[in-house]
Amino acid sequence: MRVPVTLVPQRIVFGGDDDGGRKPGQVVGAGRRDARVGAFVIDALRAWCDGAADRQDTIGWVGGCEIGSLASELAETDPLARTDLAVSFERWEAPIRSGLARMQARGELSECADVTVLATALLAAVQGGMLLSQVRRSSTAYRHAVSAVIDHIESYVLR
I want to staple 133 with a disulfide (CB 3.0 to 4.6 A). Which of 34, 39, 92, 142 is the partner? Predict the structure, then answer.
């Protein structure tokens, strides 16, 4: 039996207009905007990851990530579901990658930064951190994993 999978992640705002203008449907991470858009983006990434940890903290890390749980159950037994899950993870990773690419195009992120690698690393930190935190019933592993990757991304922000 084929299980349709769709993932609708939160959106991360990468920069934007100084007048506060936003596109409909954008969710802004909690972070004070300062003169450096790069700093704002890093704050937004941290807020996005912190929000996920806070939501999981409220339920005691029971269940972990729904998509990660589905992936571990279906990837080896249902090839069509595995394909849908891969597409869902790509939908989650794509806005991270494209936001980092926009930063790079604006000269806010070093040309040395491989935005594909960074986006994949952040998604992997989210998923791996959620799994460890689910097993340990503590957000510590998740918060450490995503912080390490975001710190690495921040090392490419041009000051």
Answer: 142
Contacts of 86 (CB under 8 A, 6+ apart): none
Q: Using alpha carbons, list the distances in angstroms from residue 71 to 28, 40, 44, 45, 87.
A: 28, 32, 27, 24, 11
Residues recorded for the chain: 159
Distance CA 5, CA 2 (A): 9
Interatomic CA distance for residues 33 and 137, integer angstroms: 33
Which residue in 92, 88, 120, 114 sits closest to 101, CA to CA? 114
Kindly indicate the confidence band of residue 130, based on its pLDDT and cuts at 50, 70 and 90: very high
> What is the distance between the alpha carbons of residues 46 and 62, in angstroms, rounded to a whole number?
22
Specify the higher pLDDT residue, 17 or 96.
Answer: 96
Distance CA(125)–CA(122), nearest Å, equals 5
32 in any annotated domain: no
Q: Report yes or no on 132 lying in a domain.
A: yes
CATH of the domain at 145: 1.10.357.10
Q: How confident is the model at residue 37 (pLDDT cuts 50, 70, 90)?
A: low
Give me the number of domains the chain comprises.
Answer: 1
Sequential DSSP letters for 3-40: ------PPP---S--TT----TT----S----S-HHHH
